[in-house]
Amino acid sequence: MNGWIGRCLRVNLTEGKHQIEKLDTDLLEMYLGGRGLGVKVFTDEVDPNIDPLSPENKLIFCSGPLVGTGAITGASCNVITKSSLSGGLACAKMRGHFGAELKYAGFDMVIIEGQSEAPVILSIIDDRVKLVPGLEYWGRSTAETEELFKKNLDDSWMARETYLVSIGTAGEKLLPLANLVNDRFLSVGGAGIGAVMGSKNLKAIAVKGQHSLQVADGSRFVQVINTLINKLNSAPLTSQSMSQWGTAFLVGLCYQKGILPRNNFRSTSQPLKNIGIEALNSAFALRGRGCFACPIACIKKADVKYSAFEGKGMVPTYLAIGSLGFNCGISDLSAIGVMSMLCGEMGLDPVATGGNFATLMELVEKKAVTPEELKIDISFGNADSMIEAIRLISTKKGYAKRLGQGGMAISESFNMPEIFMGVKGLSLAPFDPRAIQGMGLHFATCNYGPHHLYGYTFIDELLNVHENLDPLETQGKASLVKRYQDTSAVVDSLGLCNWPLMGLKFNNYVPMVNSCLGTNYKADDLLSIGERIWNMERIYNMKAGFNMDHDTLPERFFKEPVPDGPAEGQISHVKEMLPEYYQLRGWSEQGEPVLGLEE
Amino acid sequence: MPRIRIDHTKCTGCRHCEAACSLNHVANTVNPRRSRIRVMRDGNRYYPVIAGPFVDAACTSKQYIVIGDQTYDMCALCRASCPQKPYFIEAETGIPLKCDFCGIPPSPSCVRWCNTGALELVED
Questions:
Q1: Nearest C-alpha of chain B: how many angstroms from A499?
Q2: From the candidates B8, B93, B115, which should be mutated to test the interface with A, based on the most A CB atoms within 10 A?
Q3: Which of A477, A367, A388, A377 is nearest to A433 (CA)?
Q4: Which of A306, A305, A330, A308 is nearest to A320 (CA)?
Q5: Residues in chain B within 8 Å Cβ distance of A156
């Protein structure tokens, strides 16, 4: 088989057994792999009404067909489960080298079922699948786990080629904010997945293998990739901005357009010193770190220097800077770097964690709770106490128990649910939906909560790469959102990254896909696969209890206009755009997909 | 004589060169273990190592090199495949591999795909 391996590993942790299954070729062509195939298998096998932390829930790791073949940015592995934070589907995207190594280990997909009695690590090394006792790793940070596991392999050559995905202490304690970490990168969009892995008592998965991947037309494939690399190099965003600073270059741009939220989405333009590219350069010594086969290398390593903490870590991404930093009133980049690094060590999702603390800070400001009651002086702009709080929440001891329950649970426990800035139980990614209307519509309708990962509308709305659109305009945004949502579903399913869309058109991917897989897809065929995946996810979420009432934004964005900055006076127009969006998707007026759309 | 110059400070560890190499040597197949260039990692540094000649005996002592704040394993820096080192050996046949400047001239395939400038073709 070309691209795909065609094998799936099913591990039952309750019985401690595993079996290897063949994947159905028709399914692979209909759902591609990665997100599409994972969601298909998950929705077929798991009841929508189960408790996410029960043994009935399953955890699916699925690499796309282009992962590991050398296709540009073909590196990502998707993790699908029922989220402990939202109760609907969750789909995280793991970058780095894990996805490719999973393919070399001989599997497209790993399905984890049941619940182990004692902590274990699943090791898939050179065709030997076994469950290693994990008690000595329990309670360790993600970096320590990786180091210790490699040391225990007792073979430095084997250790060099082994890649791990693990949960930190946050996942072990079933914290709803917990995420997965692989190769020291946090997975994106994975809030709530760490807790599911923790509930199964699975500390980590290690993979290594020697299987070869087949490509349908090697010489054509090489040619196509040569052209794509040249195209990426001639586009300014992918060759300069992303390569040099990573996603953090968006900070200054979003600030200028009034999109960067501040103090729990209540302001966008209080005077901020030290943001933007120059500040990044002086705060960190930057060094690129690439995911498998990525010519852009947007992830940056850095030496963090801060009074409370010193060490090596990743430069915070736009998500971390926006959520953990500016939305909590903190603009000291070194402090944000420390927080983002702590999140990586403990396996916390930066967006969910930032939203959690922003909610808590507004509660304190509105005097719903006093710092004395919380036993920690948490307030907007107080970086040191926030670093302390991030350290505390994953211990979940005593008073720290109340701090990390997720924004929605915290705001409800103080009877002020209106101050939680999130949709479907998940915190908003740091884009103010009043100043960027298309993104607002995407946040309201996204199956996985308000995260830009599943619909990159800002490529056209903010960066104006393919089309020159005004972010405040609502005309034509419904079709833009639909197009980007479908595109992301396909790109995720193939196992590619969305960032090259800053330099490439979606059509440019098509020859790469066909020469690799030996198929005859056209761009429209791929997009209709994306639509099929989106509808399938929507139907599952509706069975799990979501309906059109959840397709909305927090009331603040409809009632309170932006108080200052370039987008002053704007409110969100999501409600006006929704009927058009439903119509474009072919759904009923209540937002229900008509039967048969998922087939 | 053209040579491939390696600038490890530019390497991002993306291993695109490994994929390029194996695609060029084994028809329609990608497998970093069959590639003649491998990216090694020590701490925060990445450095590509290109396969050199095979030696049939291992060194008698293991060496470490300290450059700056980083300690490197000499065996990982070494270009030879030897009985001690399971790299640069064709898995199925056991035949040792060596770089042959493959691909479309003037650039070997790994240099073509390296986008950061860590691998460069120089004339000396």
A1: 16
A2: B115
A3: A477
A4: A330
A5: 73
Please write the tens of the pLDDT for every residue from A263-295. 898 877 666 666 666 777 777 767 788 899 999
CATH class label, A7-208: alpha beta
Q: Which residues of A touch B109 (CB under 8 A)?
A: 222
Nearest residue of chain B to residue A227 (CA atoms): B113
Chains A and B: how many Cβ contacts under 8 Å?
Answer: 96
Q: What is the mean pLDDT of chain A?
A: 89
What does CATH list as the number for A236-423? 1.10.569.10
Domain ranges of chain A: 7-208, 236-423, 433-503+522-585
Is the CB of B14 less than 8 angstroms away from the CB of A218? no
Report the relative pairing of strands A120-125 and A202-208 from DSSP bridges.
parallel
Residues 6 or more apart in contact with residue A159 via CB below 8 angstroms = A150, A151, A153
Per-residue tokens: A442? 């995407």
Q: Which CATH class is domain A433-503+522-585?
A: mainly alpha
Q: Does B106 sit behind a cis peptide bond, omega within 30 degrees of 0 on the bond before it?
A: yes
Among residues A53, A212, A41, the alpha carbon closest in space to that of A110 is found at A41
Q: Give how far B41 is from chain A: nearest CA, Å.
A: 8
Give pTM, 2 decimals. 0.94
Q: Which two tokens stand for residue B53?
A: 């000649």
